[in-house]
Amino acid sequence: IGSVNSFPQKSTKGSVVLGYVFRHLNLVEIDYFGLRYCDRSHQTYWLDPAKTLAEHKELINTGPPYTLYFGIKFYAEDPCKLKEEITRYQFFLQVKQDVLQGRLPCPINTAAQLGAYIIQAELGDYDPYKHTAGYVSEYRFVPDQKEELEDAIERIHKTLMGQVPAEAEVNYLGVAKSLEMYGVDLHPVYGENKSEYFLGLTPIGVVVYKNKKQVGKYFWPRITKVHFKETQFELRVLGKDCNETSFFFEARNKVTCKHLWKCCVEHHTFFRVPENESNSLSRKVSKFGSIGYKHRYCGKTSLRMTRDPSVQLPRPDQCIERSRSKTYPKRTQQTGSKNTSQITTNGENEGTTKIIAPSPVKRF
Are 361 and 188 in contact (CB under 8 A)? Predict the structure, then answer.
C-alpha cells in the first residue's frame, strides 16, 4: 500500500491514473481497489475514474504536490475466493494495516493467530537457530502491542510448519473476514437528540452502531432508496411486511453528507443483487440513487467480478514480489513493554510503507 505523489496534467482522467497504478502493481481484479486523497480538513474522498484531476477540487486545493493513497475500496465478502494470488496479497496487506491501525479490532487470541500467519508469511518455518528470543517483537501487529501477545504469536508460529507465504496469507484472510468490523467503512452521523451513531457500509449492507454496539442492520437488497439534502441523510428500507421505513441521520456538514451518500450508492451498486431478477424488490432497487445528485458507479459489480468469463484467471506463471515489513529493535528485559509498541511511519528502517493512509474513521 503506497502513494502516488505526482501526475502529468490536471486534464488527465482519474481512470488514467488508476490504470497506471494497476499496471504498476500487475492487478487484473481491479474493481475492488481505488485511490483516496484528503482535503485540507482531512475529509477523505475516492478518486472518480470518470472525472479529470482538475474536477477533483478538494484534491487540487491541497497541492502541488498531490498525494493519493492506494487501498481497498470494496472489501470482498470472502477474500479467500479472489481469483489471483496477487489480488489476495494486496488484500492481505490492507487488512494487516487495518488491524495495526485499530480500524479492525480483534480479541487477543485472534490477534495472536493473525500475527503468527504474518510471521510465517514473512519469515517462513520456525527455526530455533535463526529465530532467537524476542524475534516476534521486531514486528508490529496491533496498537499498544504487549509482550503477552508476542509470546502467544511465537507459540503459534511454531505450529505452522510448511505453510508457504501464499497459504499463510489466505489463512490470515480466512480468520480476518470473520471479524465483526471486517470491511466496514465507518461514517459518523447524528440521530435524534444529537445522539452519536456510526453508519458502517459493508459487503452485505448498512450497519448502524451506537455506543460501540450494533443497533441495526439493513441488507442491500432491502434498501430501496438513499437520499440526502443539505446535511440530512435518508435510508429507506423495505421490511418483511413489504412496508417501507425511512431512517434519517444528520451529518456534520454538507460535504460529509454528500460523501456518505456517494459511498452508499457505490457500495449498493457494487454488491447489488443479480440484474436479471425481475421481482418487485429488484425493480424497486433498480431505482436506487435516482434522486438527488447524478452519481453512478460505472465499474464491474461484485457479481460480474466472480462470473466474468471474458478474462481467464488466474493468469499462468505469475511472479509476486513481496515487500518486507518494517522492523523495530527487539524487546529486551530492560525495556519491557515501554516504548516498544510505539508505531512510527518514518525513518530508514526496512519496509516500503512510508506514508500511512488516513481513514475517515479509524476506530470508534
Answer: yes
Query: Exposed, middle or buried: residue 118 (CB in 10 Å: 0-12, 13-18, 19+)?
Result: buried
As a whole number of angstroms, the distance between CA 284 and CA 226 comes to: 12
The answer to whether 245 and 236 have CB atoms below 8 angstroms apart is yes
**Cβ-proximal residues to 107 (8 Å cutoff; 6+ apart), any chain:** none
Q: Rounded to an integer, what distance in angstroms lies between the CA atom of residue 355 and that of residue 186? A: 21
In terms of Cα–Cα distance, which of 150, 95, 96, 102 is closest to 328? 150
Predicted TM-score (pTM) of the model is 0.83
Cβ–Cβ < 8 Å for 203, 302: yes
Q: Which three cell numbers stand for residue 277?
A: 431478477
The burial of 83, by beta-carbon neighbours within 10 Å (0-12 exposed, 13-18 middle, 19 or more buried), is given as middle
Positive or negative torsion for Cα 22, 26, 32, 35:
negative
Q: What are the CA-CA distances from residue 23 to residues 17, 28, 30, 71, 111 (Å)?
A: 10, 8, 10, 15, 33
**What's 119's DSSP letter?**
H
Residues, the chain:
364
> CA angle, corner 318, sides to 315 and 323, nearest 5?
135
CB–CB of 187/107 below 8 Å?
A: no
Q: Which ranges of 226-253 would DSSP assign to H, the alpha helix?
A: none
For residue 11, how many C-alpha atoms fall within 13 Å in the half-sphere facing its CB? Answer: 0
Backbone φ and ψ for 109, nearest 5 degrees, come out as -65, -35
Task: Give CA–CA dist 211/236, Å, rounded.
Answer: 23
**For the segment 234-281, what is each residue's pLDDT rounded down to a tens digit?**
999 998 888 899 999 999 999 999 999 999 999 999 987 644 443 444
pLDDT per residue over 126-153, tens digit each? 999 999 999 999 999 999 999 999 999 9
Enclosing H/E stretch for 103: none
Strand order in the sheet with 44-46: 3-4, 68-72, 33-38, 44-46
The number of C-alpha atoms within 13 Å of 274 and in the hemisphere containing its C-beta is 6
